[in-house]
Specification:
heterodimer, A: alpha+beta, seven-stranded mixed beta sheet, 21 helices, B: alpha+beta, 2 domains, three-stranded antiparallel beta sheet
Chain lengths: ~800, ~350
Amino acid sequence: MKILYSWLADFIENPPTPEETAAKLCRIGLKVEEMKRTGASFTGVTVGLIEKIDKHPNADKLSLVDVNDGKGVMRVVCGARNIAVGQKIPFARVGAMLAEGELKKAKIRGVESEGMICSADELGLEGYDNTGILVLPENTAVGQNASELFPKGDTLMEVEMLPNQGHCLSHYALARELCLFYGLKLKEARVFDGAASGSVVPVTIEVPDMCPRYTAIVVKGVKGARTPGWMADRLRAVGTNPKGSILVDASNYVMYELGQPTHCFDLDRLGGPAIKVRRAVAGEAFTALDGKAVKLDPGMMVIADAGRPAALAGVMGGQDTAVSDDTEAILIESARFSPPVIRQASKASGIKSESSYRFERATDPELTLKAARRLAGLILEAAPAAKVEQVSDVCPVKYLPPVIDVEPAKVNAILGTGIADGEIYACLKAFQPDLKDSKPWKFTVPSYRQDIEGICDVAEEVARYVGYDVIPSVTQMPMLPSAMTQLWTLSSELKTTLAALGFSEAYNYDFLSAKELKACALAPEAALELKNPLSSDLQYLRPSMLPGLLKTLRYNLNRGRESVMVFETGTVYARAGEGKAEDTVCAGLMYGDFPENGFWKGGQPRADFYHLKGVMTRLFAGKPGFRFEKPKKAPAYFQPGLCLEMKMGGACAGYIGKLDPKAAAANDFKDGNIFCFEIPLGGMAGAWKTEFWQKVPRIKSFSSFPQNWRDLSVVLEERHEWYDLEKSFSGVQDLASARLVDVFKGKNIPEGHRSLTIRFTFSSMEKTLNDAEVGARMTAITDKLAKNFGAKLRA
Amino acid sequence: MNATEWKEKLSAIRDSFSVSIAKKPAENPEALEQRFLGRKGELALLLRDLKDIPLEERKPLGALGNAAKQEMEAKLAELKGSAPAAGPAVKADLDLTMPGWPLPKGTLHPLTHTMNRLAEGFLKLGFTMADGPLVEDDYHNFEALNFPPFHPARDMQDTFYVAAKDQGGKDMLMRTHTSPVQIRALEKAQPPLRVFHTGRVFRSEAVDASHSFAFHQIEGLYVDKNVSMADLKWTAATFMKDLFGSGVKTRFNPSYFPFVEPGAEVDMSCIFCKTGERCPVCKGTGWLEVMGAGMVHPNVLKAGKCDPQKWSGFAFGGGIERFAMLLFGIHDMRMLYENDLRMLKQVNL
């Protein structure tokens, strides 16, 4: 909210300086985000006339200018390009106070300058063309004090307003806060305090719960009254464009001044004339001041005349009853409305106004009459012949302020402080001057503080009063045990290992486009959708981590990288009936050379399925029941036949495989050798133990005798898979391991066959095996291989 | 002799060497050396036999034989009680300044490092980790946290709505903050309760250098008897010191969040200020806004089935991105979601 310092200062006796004011506001939680000098704060500048321009003898870009300031002709050095003979310009004599300080006598390139022709910037003026000197209108009088041509010097503050600060939304309100918390004396605004007993317009409130109070003042004889310059300047400063008509401008002025929105109806256009506060009728027509046609519904409240709606209550007046330059008589409305009703109406109608903004945040119930009187007073000042004919204040629901029992001990307990009773009392007394000192103090909440409901709110006010720094930083919190969640621990373990294996962690957004889904063979219909996406590129909640990872791959390939190994852990979403389902997934991909950077010793194979399988084997090392299986149903983005499912016991631990060529093509990858994995953490969480005592492995005993090994090369048909061979070795006595050390196809190997070299290691718990014993075991293996797989020893 | 036979013979020699060297009491190492490695030793003879094997098969066998020889030498040296004598001075052709083996190196994301560190900080202070969903219902995200329907506080957090219904038939939403976990934690367990949560949140905001429609928060909650704002101040200060060093100062300013009362904003002293320059990080104020905090609002306690007369609590939290950007010196939030490996690979921690 924009606050003009001089306006604020109107309400404080001996106001602090702008800088002090800003500091004081910040300390009580009203953050001044920006401070700006406005208007003319310079002195010693007069309107001058350029009479003659000569070249500077020593500088091409400078001129020597004769300026007549009404008292004499001065010779000035000037560097601006936009000067011309006959221009009226702001001329500063030596000794003038400008934005940067006092102007001193100066010699520029050997020529003495007797003053300066000023730019807007040098005068400290905002909002003017600043490319050269400031050229004044031709009709300006030479010799006039230039500061009179601009609004007076002032300071504009931008104060951040939080949703609970409905009581701070005006200049008067901030002055009141400053006075209350810093012991300053508050000054009141001038108001019309006359009486008028007329009842030109009857006011009826049909919905007292939505509108507990309605104040109306009728003023006649207002035609042609214009807005005074000082008011227009202030409105402009706080960001409102003055209309020139006092009826519109003064209403805005009162809102920025007191915080109460008001409205002026043209009395002659009010049917009846009468005011009826009621619910809208479905289908009723209403066109707002800004020309917008609003579809009314019974949830909305309207201010109606005898027949039709004249205003959408609290949001905006109607076009039909708006004041114009011909308006003779007006009805001033100043009411209290229920905040949620106004907010709903504002949302439903799509109209946000300064008025609805304030009503949503709760206005002061006791302010309606004062604001109406202030508005009437301002109008009367501008239209001295006008007459007030009616002042009525209809209040079907009297506002009863809450009374809070305040025990100082309770306040100190909340804050953890030892603030003296007297200081707490002083704070409450500043709010409520007639507070009696008998405990518990009966604290009547001021009407403008609709946000104070209980003792916690009172504690906050006390803290603001004494300053938050008074709260000590001490604790006596008892010990409590602490732990991470299983999901966090599991995901951390995976992340740490993957990073150690060369994968970098990515963070992608959760939202995807239909195109991105389809490119990965994912159906948009099955994905959860946002109802109000920022754009169609960000419409679906990701059902898989893959599209994000592919985006990461593409991003890095486009920036010259040749190898990419990345992973990401995040949430994936799906529809579940009418509702939704979420799971956490760890997924990744590898592409390019492995290891990533070439090595001078050579050996830099392209990453393939077995690299990724090795990564997974390492990732799940020692996990009970871990194995690879052929998938029954793999996600569609894996290439069929080049995908394996990972299992832990009965649980699916995810999939690894090659990206389906169709998906690679749809994602614009020329080289489709992209290998991906995904691990659903939710499904696996039961099998992957994270508690230390559960996950520590039990060490198996091993032989104290030397072990023996033998290599065996066999030739067999390619259709036999290693998995089956390996399985067949179970039961061979003393066999500690069977490791595949070489695979060979080609010379001397028949078509459709391959040669496998397997290293068998034997170890007995009882003794050292001799040659014959090892030989016997090898024979058993050879026989098995021959019998089950038709394997022959390689010649 | 063919290759297979040769290999079998090599295995047999290795086996018998293993047996011999393991004998207790130990055999004379010189004698063993003579027997296996000497000029007419078993291994030497076998290696000589290689000449009878076809050339293409000879090379791998030679390597195996040499490996066995080195292994035996090492074991014998051990038996002699002396490590192999230092070799002759490094050969001139071995350039030790050449790069070492390029073991693969991956990194965790700056946000993960930051969250891990923050989580550790919470653990040390006795906070246990709690969890909650990212697609939330209106009740947990707003209403139970004292954002009544049609309250302007709802404007503080622009919300994404999801085409899914909660149990009451209301539209679900992407959680706008981590605070719903406060309610979920209180629903699960009665006080005393000290929990924290960290995770992703969403706001319908355009992306720029300091905004993102998805970002991360961390949040702590403590509910017990006689919890005060002094406890909160101590906890927040300790927490910030854990992250930014023991020299860092914290201060509280009045602020507003619907779910706390009194509410405060937590500032930390700027650790980037250098004397004599206007600090670009804190803009010369000396302070950085880092967290929101306050005493748990009575309405929130009630929503969590706790009697506000009996229990009180504090809550505080902040954005992870802000911490990560301060710590890693990242000036544009978008860098955290681009996944440029030139950035990620620098995160060596």
